[in-house]
Structures are given as C-alpha cells and as structure tokens.
Write a structure and sequence with these properties.
The structure holds three protein chains of three kinds.
Chain A: H1 4-34, H2 42-60, H3 64-89, H4 97-119, H5 144-166, H6 168-178, H7 180-185, H8 190-215, H9 227-237, H10 242-262, H11 268-282
Helix pairs in contact in A: 1-5, 1-8, 1-9, 1-10, 2-3, 2-4, 2-8, 3-8, 5-6, 5-8, 6-8, 9-10, 10-11
Chain B: H1 8-23, H2 27-53, H3 60-77, H4 82-104, H5 109-128, E1 139-140, H6 153-177, H7 179-189, H8 191-196, H9 201-220, H10 223-227, E2 229-230, H11 232-235, H12 238-251, H13 257-276, H14 281-296, H15 300-317
Antiparallel strand pairs in B: 1-2
Helix pairs in contact in B: 1-6, 2-6, 2-7, 2-9, 2-12, 2-13, 3-4, 3-5, 3-9, 3-12, 4-9, 6-7, 7-9, 12-13, 12-15, 13-14
Chain C: H1 17-24, H2 33-49, E1 63-68, H3 76-95, E2 104-109, H4 118-127, E3 133-135, H5 140-152, E4 157-159, E5 174-176, H6 184-197, E6 205-211, H7 214-229, E7 233-240, H8 248-257, E8 261-266, H9 268-280, E9 287-292, H10 298-304, E10 312-315, H11 328-342, H12 352-369, H13 374-383, E11 386-388, E12 391-393, E13 407-411, E14 428-432, H14 445-449
Parallel strand pairs in C: 1-2, 1-3, 3-4, 4-5, 6-7, 6-8, 8-9, 9-10
Antiparallel strand pairs in C: 10-13, 11-12, 13-14
Classes of the chains: A mainly alpha, B mainly alpha, C alpha/beta.
Chain lengths: 290, 318, 450
C-alpha cells in the first residue's frame, strides 16, 4: 500500500538522487551540449575520480569528497591534454563529433584497463563519518550518505552557473557554444576557450567521482552503466543548459523513486526512459532548449 | 564490351567464403567468423541510416535484441526453421523502426541518437520483466548437434550469417546507388535545402530506418542459437550500439564497402585479442587500435584509398 | 597404481629439491593428506621466495587445461580469485611431478564477463589450442554458453560459479563445484528460512527483495517456495533492476509492510547499498539478510564493518570449529600470501577453496583412471566421494553437489574496519545448517543492530 508518508519520502529521496545525477551529467552538458564533443567516456572519468578518492581515503584516511576537490586541477589538466589531442586529430580537420565518438570509445577502454591494472577488479568502498548517520525528522529520511553528495552537487552546479553566467571566461565559453565562427572572426582564440571548457568538464567528472563512491561501491567497469542515463539527462535538459540539466536530473530522480514506490523498482528504467521519449516527442528541444 | 557489374564482387567473395567453409574443418573459425559476419550486417545496416543520411542510431542493440528475442518467442511457440525466425525478426524490428522513425525523426540528429539509446533501455527493461521469454533467468535455446546438408550446426549458422551479410551489403549498395541514396546524401549535406528542393526527406528517413532496423533484427535472430543461452544483458549489450557506429567510422561511411572493411578489421581485432592475450590487456589493445585508426584515417580507410588515388591522378595529370 | 615418472628437477631456483623429489615419488592416488599438506606448504614457501617451479622437467607433452575466466567486467573480481586458486593447484601438481607424470599447463582467456565471447573462446580451446581438459568460467551466463560446446566434444566440464545450468541439458559429464546443490533454487535460501523458524515466537510474515538478474531471480523464486513451505506470508515482494543505486524507497516500502523477516537476494554493489540503507533507516524487523553476493568479499566485509552486525547471509567458507576441513588452513594461508601480489580478493573465502577443490576432484579422477578419457572421468566422479579442501564432496546425477551446503552465517561483534577480525572464529557465526552451526542467532535485528 502506498501511503502519503512513502510518497513524500520518495520525492525527497528522488531529489537527493537527482542532485547527484546533476553532478554526474554537468560535464556532459559542457562537453556535449556546449562544445559538441560526444564524450562517451565521461562516466569512466567519473570512475577515475572515484578511484582517486578511494586510494587516498584508504591510505591516508582523507575525506573522499575533499580529496577529489583537491584533485580537480589534475583532472582539469588531463581534460586539456585530451582535448589537445582530440582537436589536433579531429576538429582541426572539421570532422569532429561523430569520429570523436569512436575516439572516446577507445579512450574508455584504455582508461578502464588502466584502472583495472592499477586498482584491481574488486568493488571498492570508502570510509567516512557521513556514511551511516541519518539526519531525518518527522518520518522523512535524510541519510547523510545521500545528503552530502547532494549538497556537494548543488554547490558544484551553482559554481558552474556563476562561472558561465558571470565571469569573462565563462561567458566566452557560452559564446563559443553559441556561434564559434562569429567569435573566431573577432580574433578570439576559440580553441583555447574550448580547451578550457573541456578541462572544466573533466574536472567535474573527477569531483562527481568522489560523490559516486560515497553513495555506492565502484569497480572499473561501472562507468558503462551510466552512459545512457547521463546522455539522456543532458538531452532532456536541453543540451548545454545548466539549469535545464539540473531540472532534468531532478525529474529523472523523482520519477525513478516514485515509480519504484508505486509500481515496483524493476519498472523504473522503463518508466524514466519512456518519460524521456515522451518529452522529446512533445518538446523536441528539451526542457530548457533554445 | 560491357563492364562487369560491381555487385558481382560481393557475391563472388561470399561464394568463395562458402567454399572455404566446406573445406575448413576447424570449428573455431566458424564461431569467430560468425561474429565477424554478424558485425558486417550490423555495420552495413547502421550505415544505411547513419552513414548515408547522417542520423546516428545509438540503439542498434534494440533492433538486434528484437530479432534475438523474436526468435526466442517463435522457438517457444512452435520451433520453426531458422529462416522463418530471421524473417520474423526482420519484420518486427523494421516495424519498431517505423514507429521510432515517425516519433523521433522530426527531431534534430542528437535527439534521435538519444531516443534510440532510450529505446534500447526501455526494451531491455520490458524483456527483463517478461517471464514468457525467461525474463532475467534467460532462455536456453538448445542447438541441434547437426543439420542435414551441413557438416555441423555451427557451420549452418555461419552460412546463414554469410547469406545475411551478403544481403545487407547488396541492399546497402543498391540504396547507395539509387535515387534513395542520393536523397539521403542530400539530407546529410543539408536537410533544409534538400526539403526545399523537393526531396521527400521524412519518407526517405523512415524508409532508411526501417531497412536498417530490419537488417539488424535479422542479424539478431540466429543469435540465440549461436550463444545457446540468451539473457537480456547479452541481447541488448551496449557493445552492439558502439561497435556498429565505430565500424563504419573506421572503414568509411560514404561507400558501402566502408562498413564491411571496418567490421572485418575491428571484429577480427576483437576476436584475436580475446583469444591471444589471456589478461585484461586485450581490451587495452582494442582501445589503442581504435584510437589509432580513428586518428590516422579521418575519413575511414576508404578515405585513405581515395586520397591516395586522387594524389596519383593529380601526379599523372601534371 | 602407477609410479609417476619423475626425472631429476633441474630448476636451480628451487631451494629444496630433496623435499620435492620425495613428494614426487608419492604414489598418485595414494597421496596422503599429510604429504599433500606438506607439498602445499612447500609451495607456499616457494611462492614467498618468489620462485615458482612452473617448469618441472617432465619428459612427455604437457596436459593442457583450458578455460575462459573473467579478468575484467563486473565479475572480474571472482574470476581473478578463482584463477589464482587454479594456478596454485597447477604449481602444486607440477611440483609433485605433474598429472599422470605430465606437466600441467593452463590455457585461459579473459571472457570479460561477456557470454558473447564464450563460443569463440571454447572452440579455440578445443580446435586450435587442443586442450585435453576444460573448466568453466565464473557466472551462470558464461557457463551456460560454454556447456553446449563442451557437450558436442563429449568432454568433462567442471565449473565453479553457476546455478541450474544443467537443468535443461542433463549432461552426465558436467560438475558444479558451488555447494548450492541439485535443488539450488530452493536450497540457496533454505538455511535462511530454517534459521528464521527457530525464532521464538515463530515469525509469520516475510518480505522478499531481489535484483532482477539471473541468479537473484532464481533465488527469489526459491524463496517464495520456501516461504510457502514454512507458512510465512509474503507481505512485500519486489524486484529492482540491475545497477540500482538507491535503496531508500525500496526499504521504506518494505518497512511499511512491517515484515518480521526480510530476505534479500542482491549483487555486490546493491548488497552494500541495501546494508547501508537498512542501517541508515534503522530497519525494524526481527531478522534481516539473505543471499547477498558480495558480503563474502574482503573489501565489502572490511568497509561495511560494524554495519554487518546481525545480518544473516550465506557464505561458502568461514573459519569455524566445524569447518576445519583437512588442508583448508594451509590452502588459505598460501592463497592469502599470493593474493596480495596477484591483486585478488585478500581473504579468499568465497570461490578460491572451491575452485581449488574442483581441481583436486579432477586430479583424483584422472589419476585413478590413469588416463584422460572423458567418459571414464565422468563415471568416476559420479561414483566416488572426494576428500577436498572444502571437505567431502559427492555429486548428484545432474552434476551439482548431492547435498547442498551453503553456510548461513550471522555477523556478530564486528568492531571497526579491521580485516583481520574476519579471520577469527566468532565474528561470522554459522547458524545453519545444524551440522556446522556453533553459535546462537541474535534477534530481533533492529534492537541489537543499533
């Protein structure tokens, strides 16, 4: 029987889950939505972030989320390096997006195996003080294990929102996303701008990895499970819109938990992806699409 | 003297392989060859829509899975000959293609790509919850040891897939060379302009999706008998979606031979890496080779050839 | 009984040729337990010194044993651990002079936890590598794909890690080392329900939760039958899709149904999710646990730590006064030594002893019939009881263990996140089956858990 209490809790949990989905997707929103780079390997960069958090947590006992924030510059640099290679190989010749797909597919394999060799195949978890406690009240559950990543995600997307809306570099990235050609006519080095944006995208993947390993155990092949969800949210949000991504992520989270409360969890993926198809049929450019 | 029509070459190659399959006794080559041929079908089919018109189908697994589970349904009901299952899988998959196309092809390219990806996930979840075909328990399709006229059942499967590969290649070639292919190419270059010039874009796209999806469904139908134990994870594996995109990209998307080259190359590398390197490094090799090919041949291998030919012609003319 | 043909071992790196040659001259089938253990210890000494005698100078062609084993993908962890156990057996037998006097060589490939690769791998093993014997990989899907190919070659297949694969084929040369038994579907949850019925007063309601995947579904179907058998009313029955990461809504629905017993069948990442969520929500029930894969792994045991307390879950092996099978201690000591280097599961309680035992069964059968004839091997394995590192093993006609032996274990008194405590008797108390039980079941779950 579905009580009011269960429904309220489903909505709350869905929002917490959706917040985390937003952090996972935001990098794709930047790379795919703004720069038109089909980075199918994005989830595997997230897993990389998880393993960085794991190894530091395991050996030095540091907090996984703080670790990935400190490590974010490294991911940023990694993103820049990959973009340089990608640009030299594909974009400069004007054959970007589709070939990039196969390229990132290869990158996905390479990183996966590197992780396998470095950390083994076992599922890894972390230890922190916020795994276990529940700060819920009045019959509403608020497990810190979900709340902390949620707060972190919101901070991350808000930061990016400010960055893209109110800083010079951020607006330059938005401008490149809108009309790269016009910008290049104005003597702007669009490549440098895009490189920076891609670096930011990969840095968010690293940070999201910290959230992920707090929520669930991670193994090197886990990233593949996230590909569908991540791209679906990005498209649902309207490609390249940060606000849209957050709204879409929250909707998907809430739809998933409500479906699992009412119809049973085994139908959740079908319902959420059917919702996606429906949304696309009704509003083809996504929630916040231009 | 009349020129030899170029469709003769795929037929000759297929006949040659057929002859070889009667001579080669080693079954490993049948098993491995089957996978390569299956990817030729998938890559050629994908290319009809993706390569010619530029609409990226991310959900090859959906159509492949429909074919595979279509065969399972028939197998449970009255165990018809494999050919019936193939036709059935093809028809159902192309009908699903028709519906998907009508719903989503008005969308921009990326949205279509994501919609097909979502289709694969929705279908996988439906099958997971459908106990008639085994649901999560999977389905054991018992393969007969032998079949009349063939050295072994695996050989039979191999020959069936060889036939399907030939059909896929000939269909892709016929479409490419017909007015449909030219219409699709116009859509790829500039859909709006094509529409203005009177190209029936929607109808062409729907047709291409149906043919493409139908061929993928046909490729999926013999799969339960190949693997003998079918579960939703292997029928709707993401690998089909990704491979059937990567293969035409590597081979070259504008010519029907491109997907064939790409499929042979990538599938052979994957098969060989699996059975020569006993550790997880085999995936690494596949990844590195994929990156190298895609980087070094930006227009696919067909593109490399064309560039070489153009250079030579230029040199000859000067 | 034949004497093994042994030549002087030429490998200079072997530090104790004397001990080895005395072991080698032992009669194959008559190898005593004491000698066997000694050989195992020798091996562990060699492994520690970093020199493995993989190259015994044995005259004839080696015996090739082939298999696919996941080294990557979701089941790669199990595959790595099982592979290490099989390699230990190979090193051991080669140090003892080989099988039938021939060196043993393993031919294996990474199946990436992907059944689609299996037909290629096994036909390559038979037709190109010309292996003499084959083993199964880890996972029902991969063994189910391999079995028809093995049947076609009329070979023996010994697998570790599949459930109900042989139900449809009823192949007489298939053997499964996992102790789920020939009635795997129901026997996997049997111990759990038996334990539940020992509570006073007897429970009347049960909630069943499981992943919608092959193994869990089998277990859930069996759990429903068991619930009926023991007269429990199912008040919640829900499946969740693979890759589910959020269990709050599921467990809240479970709690709303207010069951006295909660049975969960889950995969490794979900097992951790369910345990953590139950802890966070302070799940109120009398008994909680089930067939949760993953709690047997060192990493999950260690990191979940105290959250495991009072959970009742199945294990294949735990240290206990009742599980002191001859040879198991030595085996695990050596395994744990090598696992660090191999990057495999550190404790090795789950698959490794069973994978190793499978090799012992094969070895004994081959030695006894003095040949590699698959029919004779199959007949011998069916007809005999085997002494292995996991105790006495007898096979049912369908190739499963004749008598299921899943240990239902309650985690008790776990403090902090130290892995060593799991090597101690008393932290994982066997509750069922009675033959192996030595402790007391704590209940209700919630009151003692927090």
């Amino acid at each position: 029987m579905v009580t009011f209490n269960l429904l309220i809790n489903a909505v709350v949990t869905g929002i917490l889950l959706g917040g985390f989905y937003a952090a996972v997707t935001i990098g794709v929103t930047i790379a795919f939505g703004m720069l038109d780079i089909v980075n199918i390997a994005h989830p595997v960069f997230i897993i990389m972030g998880s393993f960085v958090a794991y190894i530091v947590n395991r050996h030095f006992g540091f907090d996984p989320i703080l670790t990935v924030i400190v490590a974010a510059p490294l991911f940023f640099l990694l993103g820049i390096a990959i973009f340089r290679f990608y640009y030299a190989a594909f974009e400069s010749s004007g054959k970007g997006s589709l070939r990039g797909l196969a390229f990132f597919f290869g990158i996905m394999f390479v990183i996966e195996v590197t992780l396998l060799l470095a950390f083994g195949v076992d599922y890894r978890l972390v230890q922190t003080s916020y795994i276990g406690p529940n700060i819920g009240f009045a019959h509403i559950d608020l497990p810190l294990r979900m709340v902390v990543p949620f707060v972190g995600s919101m901070a991350l997307v808000s930061g990016l929102y400010i960055f893209f809306g109110h800083t010079f570099i951020g607006r330059a990235i938005m401008a490149v996303a809108q009309d790269e050609f016009a910008l290049s006519l104005m003597a702007v080095d669009t490549v440098a701008v895009k490189q920076l944006a891609f670096g930011v995208a990969i840095a968010t993947a690293g940070i999201a990895g910290g959230f992920l390993i707090v929520i669930q155990p991670v193994d090197p092949s886990l990233g593949r499970e996230y590909i569908g969800r991540v791209f679906a949210i990005c498209v649902l949000g309207g490609l390249g819109s940060i606000t849209g991504t957050v709204i879409a992520a929250l909707i998907l989270g809430v739809v998933e938990t409500i479906t699992s409360t009412i119809f049973g969890p085994s139908w959740a993926p079908a319902v959420s992806f059917a919702a996606l198809l429906l949304t696309l049929a009704i509003r083809p450019s996504g929630i916040m699409g231009r | 003297m009349r020129r030899i029509p170029s469709w003769i070459w795929p037929v000759l190659v297929a006949l040659f392989i057929l002859a070889l399959s009667r001579v080669v006794k080693n079954e490993y080559y049948m098993f491995a060859g089957y996978v390569v041929l299956q990817y030729i079908v998938l890559a050629s089919a994908w290319n009809i829509l993706g390569g010619y018109s530029g609409y990226v189908n991310f959900g090859s697994a959906a159509f492949f899975g429909i074919g595979a589970y279509g065969a399972v349904v028939l197998d449970k009901l009255w165990q018809p000959p494999l050919v019936v299952a193939i036709v059935f899988g093809g028809i159902v998959a192309s009908l699903v293609g028709l519906v998907t196309a009508y719903l989503t092809l008005r969308l921009r390219g990326v949205f279509f790509a994501i919609a097909t990806l979502a289709l694969a996930i929705v279908l996988q979840t439906l099958v997971m919850n459908w106990d008639f075909v085994g649901g999560p328990l999977g389905y054991y399709s018992v393969r007969p040891d032998s079949i009349a006229g063939f050295p072994s059942y695996v050989n039979y499967l191999f020959v069936i897939m060889l036939g399907l590969a030939l059909i896929a290649v000939l269909v892709a070639r016929a479409i490419e060379l017909s007015f449909i292919g030219r219409g699709l190419a116009a859509i790829r270059d500039n859909e709006l302009a094509a529409e203005c010039c009177g190209v029936p874009t929607l109808r062409l796209k729907v047709f291409a999706t149906m043919v493409s999806g139908g061929l993928m469904g046909m490729a999926g139908a013999p799969f339960p008998y190949y693997i003998t134990y079918l579960d939703p994870n292997s029928a709707f594996s993401l690998a089909y979606g990704i491979n059937s995109i990567a293969m035409p990209l590597i081979g070259g998307m504008t010519h029907w031979i491109g997907p064939v080259i790409g499929a042979v190359l990538l599938a052979v590398i994957q098969q060989v890496a699996t059975v020569t390197i006993s550790s997880e490094l085999n995936l690494m090799i596949v990844g590195v080779l994929l990156i190298s090919f895609i980087t070094l041949a930006p227009n696919g291998i067909v593109g490399l050839f064309e560039r070489y030919r153009q250079k030579r012609q230029r040199r000859l003319s000067t | 009984m034949t004497r093994l043909k042994i030549k002087q071992n030429h490998d200079e790196r072997i530090s104790s040729p004397k001990l080895l040659s005395s072991e080698s001259s032992a009669k194959g089938a008559g190898l005593t337990r004491r000698r066997f253990n000694r050989a195992l210890m020798t091996m562990s000494a060699l492994a520690a010194s970093g020199s493995l005698p993989v190259r015994s100078a044995i005259a004839s062609e080696p015996i090739k044993i082939g298999f696919g084993m996941a080294q990557s993908g979701p089941l790669g962890g199990n595959g790595k651990a099982a592979l290490l156990a099989i390699e230990m057996w190979r090193d051991n037998i080669n140090a003892r002079g080989g099988l039938l006097g021939r060196a043993v060589q393993l031919v294996y490939y990474d199946d990436q936890t992907n059944p689609t690769l299996i037909p290629g791998i096994y036909s390559k093993l038979f037709d190109v590598d010309k292996v003499d014997l084959v083993l199964g990989g880890y996972g029902t899907a991969v063994q189910a794909a391999a079995l028809p190919i093995v049947m076609q070659r009329k070979q023996v297949l010994i697998g570790t890690g599949a459930v109900a694969v042989n139900e449809k084929y009823k192949y007489d040369k298939y053997f499964q080392m996992l102790p789920n038994g020939s009635t795997a579907r129901t026997s996997t949850s049997e111990g759990f329900f038996q334990a539940a019925m020992t509570m006073d007063p007897k429970p009347k309601t049960v909630a069943i939760v499981g992943a919608v995947t092959e193994f869990s579904r089998n277990v859930i179907l069996g759990a429903r039958e068991n619930a009926k058998k023991y007269g429990l009313k199912i008040v919640y029955d829900g499946g969740y899709p693979p890759n589910q990461m959020e269990f709050g809504s599921i467990l809240r629905s479970v709690q709303a149904a207010n069951p006295e017993v909660v049975f969960v069948a889950s995969y490794p990442p979900d097992s951790a999710g369910v345990i953590r969520t139950a802890y966070e929500q302070k799940l109120q029930t009398r008994m909680f646990g089930g067939a949760m894969i993953g709690l047997q792994y060192s990493e999950l045991k260690q990191q979940l730590g105290p959250m495991l307390n009072n959970v009742l879950c199945y294990e294949f092996y735990v240290p206990a006064p009742t599980t002191n099978f001859p040879g198991i201690k030595e085996f695990l000591a050596m395994y744990q030594e090598r696992a660090k280097k191999a990057g495999a599961d550190l404790l090795g309680f789950y698959l490794p002893p069973y994978a190793y035992a499978g090799m012992e069964v094969l070895e004994k059968a081959v030695t006894a019939i003095k040949g590699l004839d698959p029919n004779a091997i199959g007949r011998y394995i069916h007809a005999n009881t085997f002494d292995t590192v996991v105790g006495k093993v007898t096979f049912a006609p369908n190739g499963d263990w004749a008598k299921p032996r899943l240990l239902y274990v309650q985690y008790q008194g776990i403090v902090g996140n130290d892995l060593e405590q799991f090597k101690r008797i008393g932290t994982q108390v066997i509750i069922e089956p009675q033959e192996f039980a030595y402790g007391k079941l704590y209940y209700p779950f919630a009151a003692s858990g927090h």
